[in-house]
Design goal:
By secondary structure, this protein is an alpha+beta fold. The protein has two domains: 9-215, Thiolase/Chalcone synthase (Peroxisomal Thiolase, Chain A, domain 1, 3-Layer(aba) Sandwich); 217-225 and 269-383, Thiolase/Chalcone synthase (Peroxisomal Thiolase, Chain A, domain 1), CATH 3.40.47.10. The protein contains 14 helices and 15 strands. The strands form four sheets. It has a nine-stranded mixed sheet with strand order 5-4-6-7-1-8-15-14-13, with helices on both faces. A hairpin with a 4-residue loop joins strand 14 and strand 15. Helix 11 packs across helix 12. Mean pLDDT is 93; it is low at 172-187.
Length: 384
């Protein structure tokens, strides 16, 4: 007997940001100075990434104001009008993040714990980095499509600020004289410190369209990894060896973890710039052909970017691959929200969904790259 799959719609979206926006000039007031000196790399990174504001779940004294789980639950509450009956109707909760509040328990069960009105339901925690939010969306999508769930909530969230504070970097900066002798090393260690932001977003997925207003039908969600060919590019909780392999934090002593800043986020900038855009174009080109999608049919293009530096590179790669999408169709809110990893594409979808500019039949193409070990997620939505 052939199984009949249901149509799946995003019917509600919401975002939650902690506290007030933090400008470029205020960043070190929240994150602190390393060895009491302003950063040498900050100005260079900010000039390239184009970010003007971001959000931190911190006070200026560096005290946390929200956990990741709390922000995620607040986004869900906002989406469901803080209505206990709507929260009770959730039958699947899937929460993607790369910055959980703890290693165990999982992020999603902690979010579930912040929603006491909910029932005993299936809860899933995709891990990873930027793609984690899309993995959450795909699991929710497949569950509704097969009839396993009727009211699924998918989320993307990050609380990076706790890992960006000066004390995370200070011991290493004090001990490694080469930071002064070779500024590039300082740039590599601090690269992500000036890009990352906090926040959460949520989608409600059902098999029925909204009776009033638009819905977003999910046509397909696809993903690909190139980890079989590429070494790790962005990592946390480990150190990259000369062989290119990662040595995890469990294989270091507590003293080494502190001295080598093993728990700070690091980025191999050279590996990133050489691979992130070309690899992302390979699968996208195949999808245009396999799905019979003409680039001219795309009304909104939502590419997640860690830095505005990649805007022209993505544009040029699309042209090179024969799938050009003009800038006027792009939606990017990086400059005002910062890079919020697994949540960033959710923020863009939320912005388009609530823009008041949608028309039935329009196509929305999502692209989410993850530099961690070069993974990518893609999706197509139709306004209906």
């Amino acid at each position: 007997m052939k199984m009949e799959f249901k149509e799946v719609y995003i019917t509600k979206t919401a975002t939650y940001f902690p506290n007030e926006p933090v400008s470029n000039d205020e960043m070190e007031e929240f994150l602190g100075l390393i060895n009491k000196s302003p950063s040498k790399s900050k100005r260079i990174v900010l000039r390239n990434n184009g970010i003007k504001n971001r959000f931190y779940a911190l006070t200026k004294e560096g005290k946390p104001t929200h956990t990741n789980a709390e922000m995620t639950a607040l986004a869900i509450r906002k989406m469901l009008d803080n209505d206990g009956e709507q929260i009770k109707a959730i039958d699947l909760l899937v929460c993607g993040t790369s910055s959980p509040d703890q290693i165990m328990p999982s992020h999603a069960v902690m979010v579930h714990g912040e929603l006491p009105e909910a029932e005993a339901i299936e809860v899933v925690s995709p891990s990873g980095v930027c793609c984690a939010g899309m993995h959450a969306l795909k699991y929710a999508y497949m569950s509704v499509k097969t009839g396993d769930a009727q009211h699924a909530v998918a989320t993307g969230s990050e609380r990076f600020s706790a890992a960006l504070k000066s004390e995370i970097f200070e011991d290493e900066a004090r001990k490694l004289k080469e930071l002064e002798d070779n500024p590039y090393i300082g740039f590599e260690k601090e690269f992500l410190r000036w890009m990352l932001s906090d926040g959460a977003s949520a989608f409600l997925l059902t098999d029925k369209m909204n009776t009033t207003g638009f819905s977003l039908r999910i046509e397909w969600i696809e993903g690909v990894s190139y980890a079989h060919k590429k070494e790790a590019c962005m990592y946390m909780g480990g150190e990259k060896l000369e062989t290119g392999n990662l040595k995890g934090y469990l294989d270091y002593t507590p003293e080494e973890i502190q001295a080598k800043s093993i728990m700070s986020i690091k980025q191999d900038v050279k590996l990133l710039s050489e691979n992130i855009v070309p690899l992302g174009g390979i699968k996208l080109s195949k999808l245009f052909k396999e799905k019979g999608l003409d680039p001219a049919d795309v009304d909104y293009f939502l590419p997640h970017m860690s830095s505005d530096f990649f805007r022209t590179k993505i544009y040029d790669q699309l042209i090179k691959n024969g799938t050009p999408i003009p800038y006027e169709k792009w939606v990017i809110n990086l400059s005002t929200l910062g890079n919020v990893g697994a949540a960033s594409v959710y923020f863009m979808v939320d912005e388009v969904f609530k823009s008041g500019k949608l028309k039935a039949g329009q196509k929305i193409l999502l692209l989410v790259p993850e530099s961690s070990r070069f993974s990518y997620m893609y999706a197509l939505l139709t306004v209906c």
